Amino acid sequence: MGFFSTILGFCGFGVGVSTGLVIGYYLFIYFQPSDVKDPVIRPLVEHDSQSLQQLLPEIPLWVKNPDYDRIDWLNKFLELMWPYLDKAICKTAKNIAKPIIAEQIPKYKIESVEFEELTLGSLPPTFQGMKVFVTEEKELIMEPSLKWAGNPNVTLGVKAFGLKATVQAVDLQIFAQPRITLKPLVPSFPCFAKIFVSLMEKPHVDFGLKLFGADLMSIPGLYMFVQELIKDQVANMYLWPKTLEVEILDPTKAMMRPVGIVHVKVLRAMKLRKKDLLGGSDPYVKLKITESKAPSKKTTVKHKNLNPEWNEEFSIVVKDPESQALEFIVYDWEQVGKHDKMGMNVVPLKELTPNEPKVMTLDLLKNLNQNDAQDDKFRGQLVVELTYKPFKEGDTSKDLDNPLQKAPEGTPPSGGVLVVIVHEAQDVEGKHHTNPYVRIIFNGEERKTKHVKKNRDPRWDEEFTFVLEEPPLKEKLHVEVLSTSTRIGLLHPKETLGYVNISLADVVNNKRINEKYHLIDSKNGKIQIELQWRTSS
Amino acid sequence: MGLILGMVMGMALGVALMAGWRHMIRYRSGKRISKAVDIKSLSSLNRDDLKKICGENFPAWISFPVFEQVKWLNKQLSKLWPFVADAAEAIIKESVEPLLEDYRPPGITSLKFSKLSLGTVAPKIEGIRVQSLKEGQITMDIDLRWGGDPSIILAVEAALVASIPIQLKDLKVFTVVRAIFQLVDEIPCISAVVVALLSEPKPRIDYTLKAVGGSLTAIPGISDMIDDTVNSIITDMLQWPHRIVVPIGGIPIDTSELELKPQGKLTVTVVRANNLKNKELIGKSDPYVVVYVRPMFKVKTKVIEDNLNPVWNQTFELIAEDKETQSLIFEVFDQDIGQDKRLGIAKLPLIELEPEAPKEIELRLLPSLDMLKIKDKKDRGTLTIQVLYHEFNKEEQLAALEEEKRIIEERKKGKN
């Protein structure tokens, strides 16, 4: 009797629990409002001390740490832009999701999946401070502290098997500390080629997921589990040192390294016009490549000749064969005053086939403006031979990302190549003049950089190589900053602005050192030297 | 018995579980919402808020200027500067050389860059302020200061004189740049950017001119002419209400709303002048008046010889683009062999004019519009003018815009 009633009791209990759950669901949960309200925000001055206590853990980093800067202007900007961003992102998300959903639906026998509500809410993400790091390398490092406690509302209505289920995601909160590195820096807008993003700590993610109105994420234990799961997944992909890489410009093109050489042979000119009143003209040709800082080159002057022959060769470095062109201008040399322009023409480099010499006869024009009806006068012709020789693949690809390189062929097996790169100096000042240049002495050999005129923070970026039989473990490199002045009558034409002796044992062990050294005999001067030790093994 | 008891207990448990779940939902949701509210209210603090939070421990190194400081941006900018300078040099040459051509004063036949290098010192941003003055637009004011050491060499050619390279050094720029972002509903959410220099505080560009291998006096008045050219370019192209509109690619937008359009027409009659200063050694000055709103569109009266109280009674029509900020400028000159001397200058802000109400005004002539440059208080006489401001309707506005474009085209052809 007892046994039977216990069993009945348990059955009753089971039935009761299920009924109770259903009743409870309808009583408490079903009628909950599912809309997301915009929260009311009171200004801080109205808060009392208790609610202020609550605020304290959320104090932004720029208040607490002096090395974080305030970027409230950016917060304001985002706040003003947020309504538009919200609509734009939701539109794009819908457009991307629709085809994917349309594909996947038939597989799972679902009738339809629709976005009943898609909005990112009224609260924009905020930046709680910005910190930047300054290193000796050519890169920009920024670390904004990002907090997004928003009130988005993403409601999906799934219809299947005659039933309708609503899934709603609300109250998304993401707190992260991303580190953004911009490198390498290149001389063409926007001046950096790639963006690297990585998270310094595991991000904090919190949200509510309502299924049939009941928030699954408020079940104790479950939400902690889901949060940890998301944290670990994201950390796996983006926790420092892993990064997300976004390429903005093609680094090899943007760095504007030479990709080839064009050999120009100026042969002759024909039927040039007389520019001088007495006697004939004295022509010479000036040639240069467009979009380049390289100085122009000149042929010799052929006096009193309207059909001169030069047969002179020149080599010009090419950085971008698609956009650069060769410009030829024929001038008339004058003893006194400005040289007269006799005519000019331009040859775009893309007209040349690589490694094929091409002889061209160019008509000399007044200028490149084709609508200039001022003259149809014949100014003669110029004959040139052009050969464009692009570099082979191996020659140009210097590993841009990896500064550690191998020694070139021909290095002794136990030795290597010591590369010294003089980057820049700061705060160098001479007593009488400041036109700094750097002199390097190593192993009895001396090398010098170019002179920079009147500059206390000169920049050279020059590279010197020394081939050695064995690693220079006990040697020192002597680096000296000097200044010379060309003014006549000075008692001190040459003076030293500071020096430093660098021990090379470190570079042999570390392969690459890039440091700023304080200069001896200088008040405040510093010099940045990069040393590399390349071996063939 | 047991069955019913079991069922009742079960139901109670079920209902209690659900109630408990709802309580948890409310609790968690409440927590999240209050956190969101906290973070939002902390995102734009001001001095009072911070005092309330920190009480006695208010950090001493925090300040709240109107223009927020951006130390981090300056650090990054100085690191990035060598690359920006390289990239910008080509672009500046391309875009500024045509401007030099357009605004070239008549005495100079050619004005071009022979060398352009922006130097090693980066500009510094003293502060940034963001506000929204109009629906759908964000206005960002950037306080820019640049004490650079650029190396700019201009090749100046004047009539009858050989070309002289003039070096511009020790460039100092103090100005507030206003960037207005027009917002739109599609990525990237900004359809166009309008850039202008605020006229209040007046942008300052100071530099020293040096002639390379020669002397500045070889071309008389050359430094004044270059100053004039630079000033004209700035006030006519960059200073508010003039602006540069840059559309952001990818979104088709009608930028005509953002561009500056003629707002109205000014009918100005230069009546007479009284008690002008005598600048001639023999006889009296030969005065004439130059009237303009924009330095690009100047009009001149006839010259009346040998008269310190001349009467002209000449009427001109000028276009006004922004009544709020523009003014009518009257310059009285004395015609001379060589360069004409300025006898006085007067300014009439257009904001003082009412539409369709003709006015006759007697203006006091000053030696200069820059209050700091006036060294003497000698009386330079008065200028009497009549002015009528007529506001355009839509068709007249379009017609005036077309007319303006036509005049600029003709001028370009004339110069070439």
- Which structural class matches the secondary elements of chain A? alpha+beta
Give me the Rg of chain B, rounded: 31 Å
Largest interface: A-B, 98 and 84 residues
N-to-C series of helices and strands of chain B: HHHEEEEEEEHEEEEEEEEEH
User: Separation of termini of chain B?
Assistant: 112 Å
Task: Give the averaged pLDDT of chain A, no decimals.
Answer: 82
Strand-residue proportion of chain B: 25-35%
Tally the helices of chain B: what do you get?
A: 5
| SS-based class of chain B | alpha+beta
What is the helix content of chain A?
10-25%
Describe this structure in words.
The complex is a heterodimer of chains A (537) and B (416). In chain A, 19% of the residues lie in helices and 38% in strands. With 537 residues, chain A is of the alpha+beta class. Chain A is elongated and about 135 Å long. The termini of chain A are far apart. By secondary structure, chain B is an alpha+beta fold. Chain B has 5 helices and 16 strands. Chain B is elongated. The termini of chain B are far apart. Chains A and B meet through α1, α2, α4, β2 and β3 of A and α1, α2, α3, β2 and β5 of B.
Provide a compact summary of the structure.
By secondary structure, chain A is of the alpha+beta class.
Write the layout of secondary structure elements.
The complex is a heterodimer of chains A (537) and B (416).
Chain A (H helix, E strand, L loop, with lengths): L1 H28 L19 H7 L5 H4 L7 H33 L7 E8 L6 E8 L6 E10 L3 E8 L2 E14 L1 E5 L11 E6 L4 E8 L2 E2 L6 H17 L5 E4 L3 H4 L5 E11 L12 E7 L7 E2 L10 E10 L6 E8 L7 E9 L9 E6 L17 E10 L2 H4 L19 E11 L9 E7 L2 E4 L10 E10 L7 E9 L9 E10 L1 H6 L1 E7 L7 E10 L2
Antiparallel strand pairs in A: 1-4, 2-3, 3-5, 3-6, 4-5, 5-8, 6-7, 7-10, 8-9, 11-14, 11-18, 12-13, 12-15, 15-16, 17-18, 19-22, 19-26, 20-21, 20-23, 23-24, 25-26
Chain B lengths: L1 H41 L4 H8 L16 H32 L5 E10 L6 E8 L5 E11 L3 E8 L2 E23 L6 E8 L6 E8 L10 H17 L5 E4 L16 E11 L12 E6 L5 E3 L10 E10 L6 E8 L6 E9 L9 E6 L17 E10 L2 H22 L1
Antiparallel strand pairs in B: 1-4, 2-3, 3-5, 4-5, 5-6, 5-7, 6-8, 9-12, 9-16, 10-11, 10-13, 13-14, 15-16
